[in-house]
TrEMBL record, chain A:
Protein's name according to its UniProt entry: ATP synthase subunit a
Regions that span the bilayer: 20-43, 81-99, 111-130, 168-191, 198-221
Underlying gene: atpB
Coiled coil: none
Keyword NADP: no
One family name in Pfam for this protein: ATP-synt_A
Automatic annotation (TrEMBL), chain B:
Lineage start: Bacteria, Pseudomonadati, Thermodesulfobacteriota, Syntrophobacteria, Syntrophobacterales
Entry's transmembrane regions: 12-37, 58-80, 92-114, 135-160, 172-205, 217-241, 253-272
Family to which the UniProt record says this protein belongs: Belongs to the V-ATPase proteolipid subunit family.
InterPro entries: ATP_synth_csu_bac/chlpt, ATP_synth_F0_csu, ATPase_proteolipid_c-like_dom, F/V-ATP_Csub_sf
Keyword Transport: yes
Gene name of the encoded protein: atpE
Protein name: ATP synthase subunit c
Keyword ATP-binding listed: no
GO molecular function, one term: proton-transporting ATP synthase activity, rotational mechanism
Amino acid sequence: MEELTRVWEWTLDVGGYHLVFNAMTIVMTLIIMALLILFGFYATRKTQYVPNPCQMVAEMFVQTFWNLTKDALDEEMAKKYFPLICSLFMFLLLSNWIGVLPHMNEPTKDLNTTLGLGIMGFCIAHYAGIKTKGFWTYAKEYFQPVFFMMPLNVIGELAKVISISFRLYGNIMGGSIIILVVTHLVYGLVLPPFLNGFFGLFVGTVQAFVFTMLTLVYISVQVK
Amino acid sequence: MAIDQLTWIHAASYFGAGVSVGFGAIGAALGEGYTAGQASDILSYRPRMSGEILKTMLVGQAVAETAGIFALVVSMLLMFGELKGHTLLEGWAYVGAGLSAGLSAIGSGIGAGFPAGAACKALARQPSASGQITLNMLIGASITQTPCIFGLVIAFLLMFLDHSAMPYYPYWAAFLGAGLSTGLAAIGPGYGGGLVGSGACLSLARNPEAQRPITTAMLVGIGTTQSTAIYGFLISLILIFKGFPESTSYVPSFALLGAGFAMGFGGIGPGIGEGITGKYALDQVGRVPEEATLLTRTMLVGQAVSESTGIYSLVVALLLVLNA
């Protein structure tokens, strides 16, 4: 049961600061990025009228998320934010699925990844809001309905970052803890494949989709 | 009669086992009863479809049972598991584990029954869309289990973590607070998530062609409904992992216990409230699928307002933990 809270770390002392890098997360993120780049390369290398499997999967992703983005934002803004939304989903999906393979860890099991992505979404949404509405209209919304509600409105916005990142982290980390403990309890017999199927593939897909859609809806709430 | 340490830990593990399966039995049973009631209700209108409705009812009940089974697993582990017996803290960890697994099963058990019951009704109204309705029910009911899974994770962490190096004061309260925070805060979101799922199933029966906007709105709705369960989970993780200094007074201990209660009870109301918001919004998505984006956005803003009391609890709990 020692693996329960084990983290692979690199520590580095630079200029008096003690820096800790989560080695596993960094390596797995790089692997996933490499896989996505390979996928993109193969999907677009020889585009045909009758698509090869890779191209078909890519077209499916693009079509689905283009429609979703277009519905949530208007056509002009969708062009700008669609690449972000689609690649965010593909990255999260592969990140959540990769834990099914032995000796592979989900980067989303690390709070640093999900919190980073959550803060990214938060900054983009607020940037979009300031850009479309102008700074004063944007700032005035924090003083609604009465001015002293301002601190609570700000905390409410910050809580969104916490809830979106902890939702993904909690589900993926929770799934892997349950798989670890139950596998240990049944001596690795019968149950683990089903658990991996449920927590890795099913929950992973749904949570990747929820994270992506919430990022999109947060942007759409800010710009409207 | 002098009682030694191991006996106390043993007693605590039995107590935790009882608490876990006792509370855990409440929710699943209620949810399954609701499902069966809805199925019987609709069966009188469509006696010919009895086979199909019975099948959906049983599948839905099996999903609702999951929450109860999680609590049962924790109970079994507490009863038959190996005791380490290093410090008395282990006993408090077992009580916390029982509370976490048991209380968190209440909401998800009841909640998972709602989409199942609604799916039986939807099936009778729109038999041609049975595949879509069953799929939607399964997705909705499985996501409703998320708060319960958080409870199970905290229970496992409390049971299997090595706490021999932690000081007894204030950690006994931290473990109890961690169990209460996740357990209680999971009740509302589990219940509310089920309401959103039931709205989605009925909406799908009204307009099976609008499957895409309905599923998207349902996932977003359940996702935001679970925010307070996530805050409870966050407070529990902080309570377990923050590393509190040893103290000689009772004050820090009770601050930590208070943090658990604050976040736990504070999470119940917002979860149910947001679920009601989501249910009505989902109901309309089926009627006017072309306005799904507007409805989702309004739903999200409304849910954010009803969540504010949960955020007050989060702030108070964080202040209590930081001051301890």
